[in-house]
Amino acid sequence: MRSTLRFLLVLLVTLLPATYAHASKTILVFGDSLSAGYGIRQDAAWPALLQQRLGDKRLDYSVVNASISGETSSGGLTRIKGTLTRQKPSIVIIALGANDGLRGLPLDNTRSNLSAMIRAARAAKAKVLVVGMRLPPNYGSYAEEFQKSFAEVARQENVPLVPFLLEGIADQPQLFQADTIHPTAEAQPALLNNVWNGLAPLLK
Description:
With 204 residues, this protein is α/β, with parallel strands linked by helices. The protein has helices at residues 2-15, 33-36, 46-56, 73-87, 98-102, 107-123, 141-157, 188-199; strands spanning 25-31, 61-65, 91-95, 127-131, 161-162.
């Protein structure tokens, strides 16, 4: 009887996708409301969809979503070291900066904060992926410099970049909630695909 139960337990663990078994490596999503799943169910947000995809592909990673709605790059910088210490991630996805831009904060500070977070993650032996954002054209020249900031930081720190989290949906108003800022649940697979393009090479 005991041997039969043991066999069934081993079989169950073997058949379970990686999302339900204990993964040996962690992917830390470190973003703002666009990654926190603001206004939608948490299991519909792109980080949750990422966990599902990793399980489907039987990749031994668990996803920890440490994103906070309203977070700026300076706020992220104040908490990243503690988060890295607790989670010990193998990969860190930094998706911050959108709120800096919407508030018109100095871009030198944003770039400095992003660089400092990248270096902190590297010091913790983690690979890093930076996710870029864009602003509406009515922000003028500031929007142009804002968009360039992510590429500049990624190049200087020699890390991969997803140029624009909202690529493919930013011009589709039906994929945004009533506030016109936050994507709907229907848009989340597109966000995941954008992130996956930059993340997949880091999983090898």
